[in-house]
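Record type: monomer structure entry
Structure origin: computed from sequence
Chain ID: A
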Amino acid sequence: MVTLTPILIGGYSFTAVTVRLPKTTLLTVSNEKGYIMCGALDVGLLNNVLADRKIVAGRAVGVKTIEQLLKAPLESVTLEAEALGIHTGMIGGEALLKMR
């Protein structure tokens, strides 16, 4: 099952997506500029193979809900996210506010 939920963070609109798969759940929160995602995100792939796309993204591990994703520290971020001031250890919701 796929669930799309509009959410507000600091007064800014984002879209939360939950994809329930067998034995795992994929989580993302995004806007038109970038996104944060659960541990399924391959930041190395985005930084290396897809570098020309200049993707702004961050990865949090060990999260099972959108609420946890928003409160979790990011384990890794893309180079493009770093250019916006987003860094490893930053809380997911705070990182999203840098993507506005």
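Annotation 1: The two ends are 28 Å apart (CA to CA).
Annotation 2: The helical segments are 43-48, 66-71, 79-83, 92-98.
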